[in-house]
């Protein structure tokens, strides 16, 4: 599909549905191009409007009629879904993840570039990330409290990943949605999000470490801890619904325990916990390659902490159901924010590990540790 840069299309239901909640947006005419002699899609197409006839090279999404970059029509667009219950710290995680990917992705692959797509510049990834994610956390030093049910949640962050297989450039696009925390008590809400996940290629399931009852109990002796939803409840509702969609469980799943710093940095409360592989940040931040053994060490370390916290059955359930999964521990902030939500220094810890592992599993050309 192509989009005319001149003709306005009144009543474009697909475009309006996508941007529901936003006003003052102009939809331009979307049309199918005439096929070439060999059936190929041309690089430009002439608008069929009676008073137009101008050529356009602007590609449009057939499902929502938004503008796409030419490369997105030619390349594989990977959707990696980041899901998590309320209080899992999903917005803080996305903020820290994108910031580190911008500065460190070259260590394991190549470039990580934001994509300028949207009817107005406010919806461009660079501006949306800067205003809604980066400034509150990194400039105002205030942790995100949670995602509101805003119309802006329908505006994804889209990034182009560039890697190399030999001398050949390989492109992939990553699409992130920061939706309000999923309600894992409500079967209808679970069903809504699981339906979306069937179109995804990989998954980061963000888990609040404070949702482990024993962790919450110990931290409560030192901190004023908020109420929590046990992880077993979250996992059980999600996995039960996921069974209705065959094939999803076979895709890469990263089960990511957020706020792991609370355990790693407090040996007084957790003297019996020694998480293998978690005594240093991601190896690729200074080695310029991705170490699969490092991921395995962290996975085994997280397995040990779940065992120590009395979750052997959960580990068995994961092993029995998911065919391609790993456990991770991350910290978006690097420490506990003050009671008013402020944090003096943002020091992300291992936030890139899950997504680099997923990209590696999806056969994206990641630079791995030499054999």
Low-confidence stretches: none
User: How many structural domains are formed by the residues?
Assistant: 2
Q: Total strand count, please?
A: 13
Strand order of the largest sheet: 8-9-10-7-11-12-13
Helix-strand sequence: EHEEEEEHEHEHEEHEHHEHHHHEH
CATH class of the largest domain: Alpha Beta
Mean pLDDT comes to 81
Overall radius of gyration: 22 Å
Distance between the termini: 45 Å
Supply the CATH architecture of the largest domain: 3-Layer(aba) Sandwich
Q: Helical amount among residues, as a percent range?
A: 25-40%
Output the CATH topology of the largest domain: Rossmann fold
General form: globular
- What kind of sheet is the major sheet? 7 strands, mixed
- Number of helix segments? 12
Q: Report the structural category.
A: alpha/beta
**How much beta, percentage-wise?**
15-25%
Give the arrangement of secondary structure elements.
Layout: E1 2-8, H1 13-18, E2 28-31, E3 45-46, E4 55-56, E5 59-60, E6 67-68, H2 70-74, E7 76-84, H3 90-104, E8 111-114, H4 125-139, E9 157-165, E10 168-176, H5 187-197, E11 202-208, H6 213-220, H7 231-242, E12 253-258, H8 261-264, H9 284-287, H10 292-308, H11 312-321, E13 325-329, H12 353-361
Parallel strand pairs: 7-10, 7-11, 11-12, 12-13
Antiparallel strand pairs: 1-2, 3-4, 5-6, 8-9, 9-10
Helix pairs in contact: 3-4, 5-7
Describe this structure in words.
- 31% of the residues lie in helices and 18% in strands.
- With 371 residues, it is an alpha/beta fold.
- It has two domains: 2-68, no CATH class; 77-361, 3-Layer(aba) Sandwich (Rossmann fold), CATH 3.40.50.
- It has a seven-stranded mixed β-sheet. It has a two-stranded antiparallel ribbon with strand order 1-2. The chain has a two-stranded antiparallel ribbon with strand order 3-4.
- The radius of gyration is 22 Å and the shape is globular.
- The model has no long low-confidence stretch (mean pLDDT 81).
């Amino acid at each position: 599909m192509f989009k005319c840069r001149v003709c306005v299309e009144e009543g474009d239901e697909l475009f309006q549905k996508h941007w529901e909640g936003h006003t003052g947006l102009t939809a331009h005419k979307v049309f199918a191009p005439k096929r070439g002699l060999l059936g190929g899609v041309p690089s430009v197409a002439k608008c069929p409007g009676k008073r137009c006839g101008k050529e356009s090279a602007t590609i449009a999404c057939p499902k929502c009629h938004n503008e796409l970059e030419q490369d997105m029509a030619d390349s594989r667009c990977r959707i990696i879904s980041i899901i998590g219950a309320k209080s899992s710290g999903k917005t803080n995680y996305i903020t820290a993840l994108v910031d580190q990917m911008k500065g460190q992705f070259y260590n394991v692959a190549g470039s990580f570039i934001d994509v300028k797509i949207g009817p107005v510049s406010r919806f461009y990834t660079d501006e949306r990330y800067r205003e809604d994610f980066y400034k509150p956390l990194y400039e105002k030093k205030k942790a995100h409290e949670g995602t509101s049910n805003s119309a802006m949640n329908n505006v994804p962050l889209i990034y182009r990943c560039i890697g190399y297989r030999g001398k050949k450039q390989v492109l992939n696009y990553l699409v992130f949605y920061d939706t309000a925390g999923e309600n894992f008590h409500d079967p209808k809400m679970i069903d809504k999000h699981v339906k979306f996940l069937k179109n995804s290629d990989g998954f980061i399931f963000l888990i609040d470490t404070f949702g482990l009852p024993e962790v919450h109990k110990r931290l409560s002796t030192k901190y004023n801890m908020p109420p929590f939803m046990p992880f077993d409840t979250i996992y059980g509702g999600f996995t039960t619904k996921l069974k209705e969609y065959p094939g999803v469980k076979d895709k890469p799943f990263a089960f990511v325990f957020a706020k792991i710093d609370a355990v790693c940095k407090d040996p007084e409360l957790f003297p019996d916990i020694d998480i293998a592989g978690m005594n240093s940040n991601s190896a690729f931040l200074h080695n310029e390659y991705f170490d699969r053994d490092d991921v395995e060490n962290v996975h085994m370390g997280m397995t040990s902490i779940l065992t120590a916290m009395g979750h052997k059955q959960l580990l068995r359930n994961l092993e029995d159901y998911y065919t391609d999964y790993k456990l991770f521990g991350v910290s978006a902030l690097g420490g506990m924010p003050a009671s008013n939500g402020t944090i003096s220094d943002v020091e992300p810890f291992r936030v890139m590990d899950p997504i680099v592992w997923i990209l590696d599993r999806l056969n994206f050309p990641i630079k791995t540790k030499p054999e």
